[in-house]
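Chapter review. Work through the record for RNA-guided endonuclease InsQ/TnpB family protein before attempting the end-of-chapter questions.
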Amino acid sequence: MRAGKHLAPILGDEDQMDVEFKNAVPSCSNSLFGFHRPSIFEAMKQTKTLKVRVKDKHAAELNRMARSVNFVWNYLNELSSRAIREKGLFLSAYDMHPYTKGAGKDLGLHSQTLQCIAAEYVARRKQFKKPRLNWRKSGGVRRSLGWIPVNTGAAKWKNGQVFHNGTYLKVWDSYGLSTYKFRAGSFNEDSRGRWYFNVAVEVDVQPTLGQGAVGIDLGLKDVATCSDGERLENSRFYRRMEDQLATAQRARNKRRVKAIHAKIKNRRQDAQHKFSRKLVNQYGEIVVGDVSSTKLAKTKMAKSVYDAGWSQLKTMLEYKCAHAGIVFKVVRETNTTRACSSCGSLSGPQGVNGLRVRGWECVECGVLHDRDVNAARNILSLGAGRCPQEVGIPVL
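Structure tokens for RNA-guided endonuclease InsQ/TnpB family protein:
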């Protein structure tokens, strides 16, 4: 979430990225010797967020700063709720700045960090439509994970380290940060007490050379099935480590429990990153069905739905398509499993009992179908607007 045009997602969601294009169509140059027509991607820029891990020796200093951030957040929370209760006035970030002015020196925070906290508080208050938000707790079982917002220009790459608020912070530089100019960002703590530096930078557009289009059907047997027959196998990362997780929980080994959860998350992300990157490099248009994990999570399949990670895969495809300059669509997938992708008749399996049927033959045209591949082909046709309404698949 952003409080302003130049403020990156300061809560540090690793899957959040902001895309901004500049000079989309550069001027063409003419000369007596020829005509130059540059590519549409020439001179285009985009903003993306880089995430690097901060070395553990700086954890104590970052924790101290995080406690100060929590103090400022709670102060603004009380200030805002009192203004609403006593005067009926919703304070803006600009109205809150005089109340925190000069406190950065006493709290050991950068002055612009105080402004970022106020901007983020107002944005969250508006989002949740509440006069008072939850307190940020610095201790106890429900301790809030550390968060230190950084405004544009408040952090720099200096002497091979990140320099912020008079402190040099060593990081595991896997991106070559010296080649980038930092914009807004934040320092964030994960559940295992490890700190990361998330920063928005401006990079050149890297257009994909992929051609054609592909439809994707999301499911549980296979996480994703493409219209060309390619699949992302459901490796069931959570199910595989469920016994180890139960053992650690019975032993009340919280450190081991957090490590297992982190391993499950990393394995799932790795598989989905590789799959989504391969599709973005190979195709010029990607169409996905609108299956809702939120609705299915209320059923008996909740654990399997969350283990599949549909929402995360769609998020990866969306921002990677935006960065590569290709088309990404989400279409309604009603009747895509039942409809024959060849003739359009609704002759496929239906209902709960039909879920066990993985292959079927169309009674109208006699074509043999794989259940998931057929659905992916129908989704691709919907993305292109080729399915007629009379066959049972409404045109969106």
